[in-house]
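quick one before i forget lol
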Amino acid sequence: MKLIVMVSLLVFISWSCKKKTESVYLQQDQIRIVQPRLEATNQLIDSIAYLTARLKLEGRKIYYTTNGDDPTENTTEYKAPLKVLSPGTYKFRAYHPDWKESDIAEIKFYKRGIPIDTIIWNTNPNKRYQGVGSLTLHNNKKGALDFMNDQWLGFDTIADATVHLKHAVFVKSIHIGYLCDPGSWIFPPEGIMIKTSADGTKFTHKNVTLQPLDSMLPPTLKNVEITIGDTIKHIHVTVKNVASIPDWHEGKGNKAWLFMDEWVLNNNGIR
């Protein structure tokens, strides 16, 4: 009788351990690993930039694309820092045999834009997030995913400024760079108004409304390109923050943050 009880107990323990192991494995298999951390020597290209993807996790592999497609295990594997020679979008995703693949980490490279002479601010950033002062949006340096990086200007109201160029030039478009990090209460702009002028008196107006964020996303560097297509010397930019954090977010009803970095002016040559 004792032998039967002991054998039954051993079978039960073995079965319990097996089920526990399977349960732990299944739970582990559903956990998503963190996305690779991307570091670039520069995101505004005038010669060469170097791009590094980092993720300290034994057994992981990182894959990437340069054509805008999402990376998979069938795309190019990242093994060493990449040399970037021209503008484009780079996407990275990490894989591990025991974990769920990471979210996509994305970084964009831009052609160095038309030099900005000065930016005159009509509103001021929050005292905690003042970047590197008046040069923050035209010092040819992009902000990092960390909102504490010193290349960000943080606003809890609208951001309003006038950009002045030394000479009237043809401007194809303007890129407005911003941070999307809803986990830190930092949201995309609600809308942007652009007023352009060649002489500083007669202005052409253009309004752009952005798609509101409707779900939680990992921190991402974003930009919106607004077509200008005219010879100008002055640009008045008003970037409107969302009125309040939306209902789907845990901070609903509170004031949202707007974080901006480089404003880049693009052209196809002087006309």
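fyi Residues 1-15, 18-26 have pLDDT under 50 and may be disordered.
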